[in-house]
C-alpha cells in the first residue's frame, strides 16, 4: 500500500491530529465551548477563551495609591513601556472595565504592573487600591497606546522632557524603569541608556501623595535623570509658561506629557506657540452626565431618535420606524436587550441608572433592556 | 378548576382597585430590596454552581468511560443525571431569565447562554420568558396550560381524544426535552398550516433546533460511547437514562408550578387591555404553586419550588427566592389570598389527578362510584361514538350529575 506523500510530514500530521482531537473534544462538550470548559481548570493557559490575569500582589505606594502586580495568561503578547491595558474586574459582583498605564517595562518574570490612584467615588480605583486581594482573577485586553518612545531612541543623543501631573506619571515611570533598571545595588547604568538626557517635571498636590516620588528621586540622585518636582501645596499652581526658565535647553528636547486635560491643553498651546515637538497621553476623555431624555443613536439600524426621559426607548424607537427586538415589553423576558456602547439610561421601574462609557465599560457595550429603559442623556445602541 | 371570572365566588373579589395597586407597591419594594443588596456573594454563588456543575458532569462522564463495570455505570449515571438537572434548572433556566445579567459577565448572560437541552436557548426564551411569563395561566394565550395538547381546564370543551391525555402526558414526561423543542417551535400549529402560510421565521427556527438536537444526540449517543470503547453500549444507555431521568424530574417540577388543583386560571377576555403592574402581580400570585421541602430539594428544582416568587420576580437571582418567600407569604396573608404550597409528592399527585380528571368529561369522576362504574364506562364509550349534538347533551347531563354528587 502506498501512502500519499506528506509535505513536512511530522509537523503537519501532528497539527492535523490535534485539529481532529479538538473537534472530538468540542463535540463532547457541546453546547459549551471547549475553551470555556478548559478555563475552569487553567484560566491562564494559551488559547484561553478570554485573556485573563491573576493578581499576584498589591503594594501601597501612597495613602491612596497602590501598585497591582499581575501574572497575565499565556496569550499576553507583551507591551512597550508607556502603553496601557484595559482590565475588567468584578466589584460587588458587577464587571467594570478601566484603563491603566503599565508601570514597568517588560519584566524577566513575565509579570506586569499597574499603579492605581483611588479617586473620590471611583468604584474601580477604590476597590483596586483598598480591596484587591492576591489570587483574584481579572480580565485583560492586550496592551495598547501610542504614548511610547520611538524605537532606537537609546542610540541617542536623545534629549527628552517628561511633563507629568498626578497619576500621569504612571506611563512615564514604566519607560524610566525600562531605561534605568533599579536593583538592590542601585540604579543600573546601562550602556544602551547612557547617552540619554532626560528631564522630568512632575507636578503633584503634595509630597506625601506624589506617586513614585522616591523612585524619581533615586533616579535623580543616580544621575540618570534630572527631576523637577513641583508640589502645589508649597509652590502653588504650576505655570506652564515657566517651562522655558526651568529647562534652559527646552528647545532641543522632545516633550512627552501626561496628566489632566487642563495641564495638557496648556502644554499643547505652549508648545504649538514655540513650534516644539510634543507627544501627549490623555486619561479619561469621556464622562457621561446623566440627564432627562436625550437622543438615541443606532450603530446600524437607522435614524437617531429623540427620546424623552419618561418613556421606554423601545417604544420611542419603534415609533420612529426602527425595527427593534422586543418581547414581553414589561422587563421580564430579556427579548429586547441591546448593548449600549455609550450613554446613560434610567430604569423606569426604579430610577436606577446604567451608564456606558467607552473605554470604561465592556468593549462590546453594556446590555440594556430597551422596554423598561428611558434615555438619561444621549445614547448609542449597537443595533 | 375553572377560570377565575366564572367562579361563583372570585378569590379576589374582596380586593379593591386601590388594594391591588398597594399590593403592587409592596411587592415592588421586596424586589427593590434584593436589587439593592445583590452583589459579590450572589456572583460567587452562581460561579460556584457553574463550576461545580461542570466538574460534576466531566467527572461523571469520565467514570462512564468504564461503564462496563456496574458500579461505574451507577455512579456515572447518577452524577450525570444530577449534573444535567442542575444545568437545566438552577443554571440554564435562570440564566436565560436574565437573573444574572446584572453581573455584566458575557459568559453568564441571558443573551449568550446555551443549555444542555434539545430546545434552543432562543426558542425557549421566546416561548417561556416572553409568552408564558407574560400571559401566565390565561386560557388560550399561555400555551404552557396543557402545552396545546391537553385539557387542563374545565372550560376547555371536552372531546373524546382527551381520553388519551394521561398517556400523552406520560409520554411527554419521558421525552420532555423534545416536547419542549417542538413546543417552542409551535410545531403542531405550524405543521397543520400549508408551508407558504407559516411564519418566515419557522423554517430557520426548525433548522436551528434540528442542528441543536443533532449536536446533543451526537454528544450523548455517539462521541461519549465511542470514547468509552468496549463500554460503548453501557455509556449510551447511561446517557439515555440520565436524559430520561432529567426529563421526568423537570416535567414533574414544572407540572407542580401551575397544574395542581386550586391554581387559578384566567379568561383572555377578562384581562384588561392595559393590565396594571398590581393586576399582573395578582395574576402571578394566584396562578402559581410552590413546593415545600429541604434546601437540597429547592436547589434541584432550580428554585422553581419557589414558583410564586419566581413568577412575581422572574429576573431576581434564584438563590434569593428562599429569603423573600416569607415576606411574599406575609403579603398573601395580609391580602387574604391563598398561598399554594405543598410537598412535592402531593403537588405531583394533584397535578396528575387533574390531568386524569380533565381527560374525562366534567362531572364524570365526581358522579362515578364502584357501583355505577360499568354504567358510567358505558356512557363514556357511547360518548366517544356519539354525534356532536348527542355528545353536547350527554356532557351537560354528566356535568349536572357530577354537581349533584359532590
General description of the model:
With 383 residues, chain A is α+β, with helices and mostly antiparallel strands. Chain A folds into 3 domains: 52-140, Translation factors (Elongation Factor Tu (Ef-tu), domain 3); 153-282, Rossmann fold, CATH 3.40.50.80; 294-381, Beta-grasp domain (Ubiquitin-like (UB roll)). Chain A is 22% helix and 30% strand. Chain A has helices at residues 9-29, 34-39, 123-131, 169-179, 213-221, 232-235, 243-246, 261-274, 313-319, and strands at residues 52-62, 65-72, 84-91, 94-101, 112-117, 137-140, 159-165, 182-183, 186-187, 197-204, 225-231, 254-259, 278-282, 294-298, 305-307, 337-347, 353-356, 366-369, 373-375, 379-381. In chain A, strand 10, helix 5 and strand 11 form a beta-alpha-beta unit. Chain A is globular. The N and C termini of chain A lie far apart (58 Å). The model of chain A has no long low-confidence stretch (mean pLDDT 89). Chain B is mainly α and 406 residues long. Chain B folds into 2 domains: 4-342, no CATH class; 363-405, no CATH class. Helix content of chain B is 62%, strand content 2%. In chain B, the strands form 2 sheets. Chain B has a two-stranded parallel ribbon. The longest helix of chain B is centred in the middle third of the chain and has 28 residues, at 200-227. Chain B is globular. Chain A binds chain B through residues 24, 27-32, 36-37, 40, 49-50, 90, 92-96, 327-328, 330-335, 337, 349-350, 352, 361-362, 364, 366-367, 369, and chain B through 28, 32, 35, 38-44, 51, 54-55, 58, 61, 96-98, 101-107, 109-111, 114-116, 125-126, 129-130, 133-134, 212, 215-216, 218-219, 223-224, 227, 280, 314-315.
